[in-house]
Amino acid sequence: xxxxxxxxxxxxxxxxxxxxxxxxxxxxxxxxxxxxxxxxxxxxxxxxxxxxxxxxxxxxxxxxxxxxxxxxxxxxxxxxxxxxxxxxxxxxxxxxxxxxxxxxxxxxxxxxxxxxxxxxxxxxxxxxxxxxxxxxxxxxxxxxxxxxx
Length: 149
What we know:
This protein is of the alpha+beta class.
């Protein structure tokens, strides 16, 4: 009797961890899809992907000359021209989530100009993940060394 209880408990624990791992993978995949809608939408001139990625009332935050700058998300999306590709290379650096809240970090390289680091706050509601806030900073794109004569 005691062995069967231990075996049953072990099976239930394995089932829980397997289900939890599958759920975690599914959430990470959904968050990744949201972030890729942002990355691909801005790179390929697809504002409809940005509309899918962002909450309608999101804002962007950065520091400019030691002052907080807040940009309207609506104006940001409006600045992405349909079909106009840009020279942006984006990648997801990290994702962390718990239940219905997540943070993520991405790097966007614009060769010859800047390297942006984006920090996102995402929330899952009505069945999908949305970016509700984006904060970012940037640094100059590294200049190549001049050829020695």
